[in-house]
Amino acid sequence: MTAAQPLLALQDVSLAFRTGGGLVRRSRRLTVLDGVNLEVGAGEALGLVGESGCGKSSLAKTVLNLNRPTAGNVRYRGRDLASCTPADWRRLRRQVQYIFQDPLASLDPRMRVLDQVIEVLAVHDIGPPAERRDRALAELAAVGLDPDLAANYPHALSGGQRQRAVIARALALDPKLLICDEPVSALDVSIQAQVVNLLAELRRARGLALLFISHDLSLVRHLCERVAIMYMGRIVEQGRVEQILDRPLHPYTRALVAAIPRAEPRRGEPPEVIEGETPSLLDPPAGCRFHPRCPRAIERCAAEAPLLTAQPDGRLAACHRL
Amino acid sequence: MPVRAIVQKLIRAALTVLLLLTTVFVVLRLSGDPAVYVLGIDADPDALEAYRKQHRLDRPIHEQYLRFLEDATEGHFGQSFMEGRDALEAVMDRLPRTLLLMSVTLGVTLLIGIPAGIFSALRRGSWMDKGIMAVTVASFCLPSFVLGIFLILLLSVTWRILPTAGYQTWQHMVLPVITMATADAAIFARFTRSAMLEVLGQPYMRTARAKGLPWARAVIRHALPNAAIPTVTIGGFAVGSLIAGAVVTESVFAWPGVGRLLVTSVQNRDLPVVQVIIVLVAISMVTTNLLVDLTYGWLDPRIRGLMGRRAEAKP
Amino acid sequence: MPSAEPLLEIRGLTVDFQGTVGRLPVVRSVDLALSPGEILGLVGESGSGKSLTCLSVMRLLPETAKAGGQILFEGRDLLGLPEEELVALRGSALAMIGQEPASALNPVRTIGRQLVEALALGGQSDRRRLLSEAEGLLRQVGMPDPAARLRAYPHQLSGGQCQRAMIAMMIARRPRLLLADEPTTALDVTVQAQILQLLRRLRRQHGMAILLVTHDLGVVAELCDRVAVMYAGRIVESGTVADVFRHPLHPYTAGLLAARPRIDCRVASLASIPGSPPRPMALPLGCAFAPRCFRAGSDCAVTEPGFALLAPDHGTACVHPLEALPA
């Protein structure tokens, strides 16, 4: 942990919804996030990994204030987001930007790409209006889109080009923190590499902090220094990328790492895959949420939820068997 | 299907009917003094007063309302001025004739419209498809009274094969049925076609064929049940449109049913009869919608699962 | 060299789309061979034509598409067969699973009923026996609580369970060839591992051959015996997985292999292939990959390279292939 104040800090963040209420039936509580603690330092890249239903997208939305946490707080540079005024948010939006999975949905289909980047500068009143066009062109060039491409409408560009345009628009404001929610999942493999390289390079050049949300552990390994593994709304393991991926401790992390199709043709039988699927959030298992699928579960696991505790090598893990 | 869901729907339907009755009450009171309407604007004030007393119009409004509801549930809507007998009786007398016309029309509509739509979808892009679609557009663009009058001119007056008016024999039904069914069958054909096209493009159709089902069986077993769901929606509308169409058609063809009665009653300010007919129409629409709702649940298990509870937030 | 008579042999397959502006060739010439019990991976990115190749084998192409060439299944040309004979083959000898299992199941029929329908095509008509066979199938594919699942509807199942139900339905009559078009792309990685394990087990237990279409080279390395790489409608390289992965011949294959981030180490920068796959309506002259190729020479933009074997079971369509080590 850095001694300096982290850029983004989530403290005991919980997010719950009520659902299914009617005239007779009582509504049930859907806990999407449960006591999440996370920090992203300035210039640092944190990967957030989990499968569908783990809550990683909800977490991204909470950081963006699209969801109000039902418990805990989200702080940017020490400032609680819940106490921010609209004026604060205007300033905040310049510092925190985000990129989502589907570039086509993130871009206005009726505006040329260049105009969308200019618009962002205009909205935040950056620079004299006369210079905005040049700035926009420069940002687009930095992501590899030359002026000819930039003059297109989004549908005329390829998937990779669109995502680059989204990145250019996000970085036009010179933010300190970039939140990426599965930014390359919808792209072809050869294009994924391009965009990932671009993100890494831009990060280096601008000292950008990154919250990189993905289901793809290999990408996270490539881009991030630290990683947090999520399962059913809770962080189960967190630490440096090499630690977590080379020597996973938590049984779920081990299962995730084992499940990744190998880069090299495998010799011999593959390791055992874990059984079952993530249970419904409406009916989460008691105690440790992973225990029904865990090969190492004991009685205590069903009774008591393990806390995220520090391990000898500096990482955090939530498991009774460690 | 959960019983709770059905009960909820029934309660809602009953509440809707209550709301409708209240609206009828309010509107008819608001539209002016019923006594003046009935007896004329220069009637003797004493006669007006007597009328008001007789119909309890001098009582406080809430008492009138409760009386009105009480009477309504017992079927007492007053006396028809034109016929001098119980309004409800007057309407009920004519109801079977209208029901006959409507059911035959509905039958013809479904028997022609749905197969035409299915056929068009299966032969999409062919001349048959384009032809059917052109005919449907023409059909529902043509106002039913224009069609009705034209048919009368052609088939009754000029060629003399069918009678113009009356209701005695089945030949009397042909022209009214054709008039009403044309537009409705056209709508069914178009809707069924889009529903089928949507369904035919679904991945599970390819799965059915990949399993080894011949095309015809795949269509019957997998496409039709799924296409039935949106088709049921317009079934509800069709009933509504039939009720509305009945008014026009019965007038054009002098078919002595409820629709025609409504027209004459409004013209003659026969308020009790008008009230009865409005309530009747309301109840039938509410019932139809209830049936359509329940049919959805029967046809589509996904909706069955959602009935009785609001949509859940997906994790 | 495949030891047995090939189960499936695709020769010069082409698939054209008939549009308003004329014919659009998407699959331009595909040659493939698959032996009984073998798992062949067909790798490519969007627009490569790999899904259409799969659909052609089952002859389930969309109406606007026309297939040419030959598809020999156990010696018979599927493209020339009358529809009734093909219907007889589908499900019993050939089967197919796709990418979105939830939408590939009829939403208004229970899983049990859909399974029974597949089984009944095999001639059995006793309902009780069919249901118990259906339950057995679900158990075989690892479905939790099979009896309850028979009465469930597709929307009540998760993605992984839907895919299991699909697989159960498709293997019901023990087909000899399963075409799997990106079967795990839409699934979580742990569920993907389970499904791949299931496919591996089915091959072992039933000797079923699998043509696995995917964009994920990791999946190929996990599951497949041989692999064919497609680009812009043609096969650019094929061979055993061991050969192709260790000594790729075609620059595109090498690029794909290098572009994957590794789980076990980090490189300074992912080797990426510049540009993007060409659209079928705008194919370059000569080799379709030349504009993106780091080895392209002046001859590459002139003629399309033909496919040639450079080692006993390893070939490529490239005039400047990377060095192939002696076998």
Distance between the termini of chain A: 22 Å
Task: Specify the structural class of chain C.
Answer: alpha/beta
| Helix and strand pattern of chain C | EEEHEEHEHHHHEHEHEEHHEE
- Shape label of chain A: globular
Characterize the largest beta sheet of chain C: strand count, sense, and whether it forms a barrel: 8 strands, mixed
DSSP strand content of chain A: 15-25%
Q: What is the level 1 CATH name of chain A?
A: Alpha Beta
Largest beta sheet of chain A, briefly? 8 strands, mixed
Number of discrete domains of chain A: 1
Residue stretches of chain A low in confidence (pLDDT < 50, at least 5 long) are none
Radius of gyration of chain C: 21 Å
SSE pattern of chain A, N- to C-terminal: EEEHEEHEHHHHHEHEHEEHHHEE
Q: Record the strand order, biggest sheet of chain C.
A: 6-7-8-3-9-10-12-11
Oligomer: heterotrimer
CATH superfamily of chain A: P-loop containing nucleotide triphosphate hydrolases
Count of helical stretches of chain A: 12
Ends distance of chain C: 13 Å
Strand residues, percent of chain C:
15-25%
**Strand element count of chain C:** 12
CATH fold call of chain A = Rossmann fold
Category by helix and strand content of chain A = alpha/beta
Account of the 3D structure:
The complex is a heterotrimer of chains A (322), B (315) and C (327). Chain A is α/β, with parallel strands linked by helices and 322 residues long. Helices cover 34% and strands 22% of the residues of chain A. Chain A has one domain (8-260, 280-317): P-loop containing nucleotide triphosphate hydrolases (Rossmann fold, 3-Layer(aba) Sandwich), CATH 3.40.50. Chain A has twelve helices and twelve strands. In chain A, the strands form two sheets. Chain A has an eight-stranded mixed beta sheet, with helices on both faces. In chain A, strand 11 and strand 12 form a beta hairpin. Chain A starts with 7 loop residues before the first strand and ends in a 5-residue tail after the last strand. The model of chain A has no long low-confidence stretch (mean pLDDT 88). The radius of gyration of chain B is 24 Å and the shape is flat. With 315 residues, chain B is mostly helical. Chain B has helices at 3-30, 34-39, 45-54, 61-74, 87-122, 127-141, 144-158, 171-200, 203-211, 215-253, 258-267, 271-299, 301-306. Residues 308-315 of chain B have low confidence and may be disordered. Chain C is α/β, with parallel strands linked by helices and 327 residues long. In chain C, a hairpin with a 2-residue loop joins strand 1 and strand 2 (22-34). In chain C, helix 3 (111-120) crosses helix 4 (127-140), helix 3 runs parallel beside helix 6 (159-171) and helix 4 (127-140) crosses helix 6. Chain C is globular and about 70 Å long. The model of chain C has no long low-confidence stretch (mean pLDDT 90). The interface between A and C is large, with 46 and 46 residues.
